Each structure stands twice: as structure tokens, then as C-alpha cells.
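This week, think about what follows.
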Amino acid sequence: METITVSPKFQIVIPKEIRQKLEIKPGQKLQVFQSGNRIEYIIIKDISASRGFLKGIDTDIEREGDRY
């Protein structure tokens, strides 16, 4: 488990290992949420980065006999 310290300006540094695993780049935006006594960060990704993630998914739908 990584530990971080809040600076006098209330800034934090995301540990290098986590930045590399999540491929976080300088200038990238994160959303921050409070959940009880926890702080959670969610990476905001451009919608174009999701292009093709459903490629190859089976889109055939089995219909019931009385449905068209």
C-alpha cells in the first residue's frame, strides 16, 4: 500500500508505480469523489479512447416467437 503526504498547499503526488500502472499523463484530468471518510479519484478519458472496445461482441438477439 502506498502512502502520500498532503503538502502545505493541499497538493498530493500520485506515486510513480500507480501513475505507470494507470498510464496517467501530465495534464490528464481526474474526477474526485468523497465516499464517507474516503477520497476516490476517477480518470476522465476522452470518449474517442473508447472507440472499438465492443469490437467482436455478439449482437445477435434471440427473439421470442411472438416478438418481431
